[in-house]
Write a structure and sequence with these properties.
heterodimer, A: 402 residues, mainly beta, Porin, 18-stranded antiparallel β-barrel, 21 strands, B: 260 residues, alpha+beta, outer membrane lipoprotein receptor (LolB), chain A, 13-stranded antiparallel beta sheet, globular
Chain lengths: 402, 260
Amino acid sequence: MNRTTVWSRSGVVLCLFWLWATPTLQAQSTLEKDLQLEIELENRFFFKEGLHPGQERNYLSLGIQPELGLEWKNGDRRIQVSLFFRWDQQDNRRTHFDIRELYYQQVNDKWEWSIGFKKIFWGVTESAHLVDIINQTDQPEGFDGEQKLGQPMFQASLLTNKGTFDFFYLPYTPRRQFPGSAGRFRFPQEIERNDVSVDSDLKSWYPSFALRWSHYFGPVDVGVSNFYGVGREPLFKVDNQQVTAVYPIINQTGVDLQLTSGPMLWKFEGIYRYADFQDFTAMAVGLEYTFSNVAASGLDIGLLGEYLFDSRDDQALSNLNNDVFLGVRLAFNDTQSSELLAGTAIDLDGKGIFISAEGSRRIGDNWKMSLESRIFSGIEEDQLAFFFREDSFLLLKLSKFF
Amino acid sequence: MKYFAIIVFSISTILANAQNGSDHGLEIANNADLADNGFESSEVKLKMILRNKQGQESTRLLETKTLELVEDGDKSLIVFNSPRDVKGTATLTFTHKQGSDDQWLYLPAVNRVKRISSDNKSGPFMGSEFAYEDLSSQEIEKYSYRFVKNEQYEGHNCAVVAQDPVDPKSGYTKRLVWYNLDEDYRLEKIEFYDRKDVLLKTLTYSDYQLYLGKHWRAGTFQMVNHQTDKQTTLIFEDYAFKTGLNAEDFSQNSLKRAGR
């Protein structure tokens, strides 16, 4: 399936849905509009020369994110549009466009219906997001995989006194982009997005389905989910420095749990994923303790500790197979909303240490300055991250909000 | 019914103990609570102006929705509209008369709902001079009461009641609250005393309006911190009552929809 066909198909779906939505739009006069724009300029500086030819030290880049929200019937009908454009000075694969959100939503009492591109997040832990599976990772955006691509879907959500039930039909799975030859965080040979295929004749149009039940009982929040369809994570095989990859058809069952007890949060995420060539379990257990308003200064100090297990061992894409994450979160609660999160993931088999830090502060009313650093240390040869061992970096970002 | 029982109990003890200070204080607080009963739900827009010692100002815009509950504490939803970088951040709070409140935070950048600890009572709300506990639903059970005196304040007959927070995590040893006896026990002023029992802040209420012939709401809250000389002004606009909100409007789904 080439890109043009995908876009025209999405176009047809959206036009139909626009026709359906328009009469209701006209019937209601109190339409609320909300337009906003975020522009960010960032520079990533890598401390060392890259391992692979063509890689640079400095990556200047620009991000633009316009958003439009239209709401009527007191918010029971809504159209939301969020677009994302990234330009990167060095890596032409990182220069990309994505429809983060473009959906129509309708609320009927206990039911909520959505159709279009959406972002969905599930989970509770900080150092890994195991349960979260609906959206594809926007890989060039960040090594941590926190940024996601918009996912076309039909979603129905039902609120009951036995919890919330969510059903998802996902007709198409966007494939992950990989860094270009000038990009960092890449394997020795470049991986073409289109060379990594889905393990089915339907390719990216193999439909996926997901169900989730979530509820809370006093201090306990719980979610149980099942996903069937195209795995969002490609399955890599490293053979004699050659990396090949495929998107398997998977079934994944996930559980996320949080107990909130005073200043302490206890967290658990676990998954079991089954595919033809691979089945595995992974889990993250952790806690977060917050000392709030320390010495009446407004400062909150949060301490985080998480243990990560993945039965794939060294083949875990996250590289977090038997690791401990220790972190500290500072929230100054000042006028500028200054905050800092720093942490380290330590491989308990002694195969490397990963350090990360991110901080931000508002300047005036409409600007924000962010700083981010990721550092790899002592990564052993049999780890996937061995290919990224020279990719420690410092990122400085300035954002302007309109 | 519960309130009725409390009042009957307080009246009988008052008769027995001849104006015992603690019971008279509780009686006033109960009267104030009863006077505002029955608003069912409310919605309001809020402008928060932060002013530092040098007089520099910064502004935040919020919207809040509240659902009145009788058996348990109120439910509320707060959405931040500015500053721009936190636009769409929202919180959902279920206040409980006893025990910790339940609180969820929605982060629009990652579309994530997080259950957060409601333990942080004394910390500043959005960098302002208001602590979380100053803005949360004021339930009778959260304080113990002591009547101090009756006095004239700004031309009104007021009762001054000392309130000691039950929760040891509160940032205060006590609050002194001025109830307006001429106007349905509405609040005129609160003085906050810190953990060392030193005057920390004064909150004054002004621009009162009567809604639905029963509910007094101040248009302006002015909080002055005497120890840092910082100030925060809250300006409330477009108050609406009995807006037909129900429990479904205070779910995690509605939290996500309110944010974005």
